[in-house]
Amino acid sequence: DAVTTATATEAPSDIASVGTAFVVNAYSSVDWTIAYSISRDTGYPVFAIDHNYISEDFLETLNTGAFQHVGELILVGGEAVISPEVENALEDFGDSAGYDTTRIWGPTGTGTALETIEYVYGPEMVDEVTLVSYEGDLSPNQEEYNEILILAAETGSPIIPISEDVSGLPADVTATLNELGVDSVDVVGSFATEEVKEDLAEIDVSITQ
Question: With a threshold of 0.90, does the pTM exceed it?
Answer without folding.
Answer: no
